[in-house]
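Q: Given only this backbone (329 positions), what sequence would you predict?
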């Protein structure tokens, strides 16, 4: 278990991590999500004692990292694939780590086998691909057979096969009862991997919830309607107290999930339907909505533009809606 209480890190003027309190529990994969620069890596470094908190506290099974004897036996971490001594072979790199943590030599062969690097064990990591480097980093994390594992953006730059492998491994480790904490800035990836989510933005906690509840609470549900008689449809919906708004490709959207009621109204009014489909906004969209105001860096657009776009609702077709370009109605 990892416990953070009011964890805070300031770099000069910059508050990188701002009073974070949450607990990462065993037996499940916990996703640690936030846009670039949200403070995920800084938080993970403080968990590992690589950075000192400005305020607050973080404990691993009740202890500070520095209090752990042979820490690799308690917590294994993949922070950066590049953290490998280029001159040593993969096997020797792991052997050095094993020796300094009182881990038996045979474990090196076991973890190399687990991550599929046995064939290149005597090669130097300098020539490794990104995926092989990640595998070696994961082998190091697994070396002490720790109960807690932490991965910082483990799938960055990997091909689909590598991504699938890491995802399956993390779920397997969690099923064994371990605590698995993995950071990402991709909601879609986390949705396939994590059961629990911790979301941060600009160093602050935005959500600490199960994946299913996060989806429930953050994603918009709406009904998409297509009809050859949009004006009749709109009038009928408004008369029923619903608020249709223009959707993509000429469709209409109505907030909520009451497709059945809309279908019955259409039948009663003999209104032709080409499409009536309940929709749920994608998880990526839910994540963007949640973090929109905290996005620090974004390509091409300023933070205000990014914040406004996903958060603002589509314009509603109300009383002042321009009824058709031909001026009728
Ligand atoms: N050593 C440092 N000195 C000064 N500022 C830092 C330092 N490390 C991180 N920061 C700043 O703290 C903030 C959080 O950075 P951090 O790397 O923890 O974010 P992150 O969520 O891991 O982002 P990314 O997904 O881009 O890796 C950023 O604004 C970053 O520029």
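A: Predicted residues:
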């Amino acid at each position: 278990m990892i416990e953070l209480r009011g964890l805070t890190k300031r770099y000069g003027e910059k508050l990188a991590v701002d009073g974070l309190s949450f607990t990462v529990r065993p037996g499940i994969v916990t996703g640690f999500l936030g846009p670039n620069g949200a403070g995920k890596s800084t938080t993970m470094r403080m968990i590992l004692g690589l950075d000192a908190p400005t305020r607050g506290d973080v404990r691993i099974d009740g202890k500070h990292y520095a209090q752990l004897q042979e820490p690799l036996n308690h917590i294994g971490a993949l922070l950066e694939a590049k953290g490998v001594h280029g001159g040593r072979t993969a096997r020797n790199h792991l052997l050095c780590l094993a020796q300094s943590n009182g881990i038996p030599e045979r474990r090196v062969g076991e973890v190399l086998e687990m991550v599929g690097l046995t064939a290149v064990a005597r090669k130097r990591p300098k020539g490794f691909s990104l995926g092989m480097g990640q595998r070696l980093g994961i082998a190091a994390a697994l070396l002490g057979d720790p109960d807690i594992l932490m991965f910082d953006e483990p799938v960055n730059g990997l091909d689909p096969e590598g991504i699938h492998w890491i995802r399956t491994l993390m779920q397997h480790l969690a099923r064994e009862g371990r605590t698995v904490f993995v950071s990402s800035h991709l909601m879609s990836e986390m949705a396939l991997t994590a059961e629990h989510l911790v979301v941060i933005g600009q160093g602050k906690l935005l959500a600490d919830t199960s994946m299913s509840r996060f989806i429930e609470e953050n994603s918009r549900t709406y009904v998409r309607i297509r009809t050859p008689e949009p004006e009749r449809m709109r009038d009928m919906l408004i008369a029923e107290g619903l608020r249709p708004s223009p959707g993509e490709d000429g469709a209409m959207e109505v907030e909520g999930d009451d497709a059945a009621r809309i279908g019955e109204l259409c039948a009663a009014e003999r209104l032709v339907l080409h499409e009536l489909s309940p929709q749920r906004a994608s998880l990526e969209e839910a994540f963007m909505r949640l973090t929109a105001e905290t996005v620090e860096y974004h390509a091409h657009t300023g933070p205000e533009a990014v914040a406004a776009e996903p958060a603002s609702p589509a314009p509603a077709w109300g009383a002042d809606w321009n009824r058709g370009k031909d001026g009728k109605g």
